[in-house]
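ok trying again, last paste got cut off:
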Amino acid sequence: MLKKPMLVTDEYLALLEHEHSKGDWGTTSHLLAPRILPFLVASGSKEFLDYGAGRGTLKNAPEMQGYTAYEYDPAIAKISMTPEPCDFVVCTDVLEHVEPDCLRNVMEDLKRLVVNKGYLVVALVPAFSVLKDGRNAHIMLREPSWWENFIGQYFKIDSFKLYGLKGGVEYPWPDDKYPYGKVDIHISPLDN
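nice, full thing came through this time. structure:
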């Protein structure tokens, strides 16, 4: 019998479940819908998989109406079953939360799932939240070039767009420490 690769350790899953139980985690993906929609439209797909869906706010965004949404999140019991491959896969603000020892397995899982196109959003700065064990919630912080090289091992990168930090927000780090807040990465399978 084939052993399923570990996408998250039991200990870390318990931390994620705790954070999601507080109700404020995984509630902002709908804000990214205007950035995702042009790529979803261009793909020609009428469905998408929200990988790391959290509270599932993306499917409820007005821009996403008319599309069939599938959801997966290992820390939300009702959507924690292994998902099926999908024509278009969205993975927003997830990879920076993945344990370093599990990241390759998560990328292999995404590779298994992305049939045609995908859209990844990765945070490049520390989170404002801290896990129950005292660590910053973004446990997988890396430079943009690191993410580009790493993801390029698994997917063809169709676009790689960096976003600066939001203005008018007071950040708990020096102004010049992090020049970018997030990166959006439009991907397709290597064999496309």
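cool. The domain at 10-20+27-189 is CATH 3.40.50.150 (Rossmann fold). The chain has a mean pLDDT of 93.
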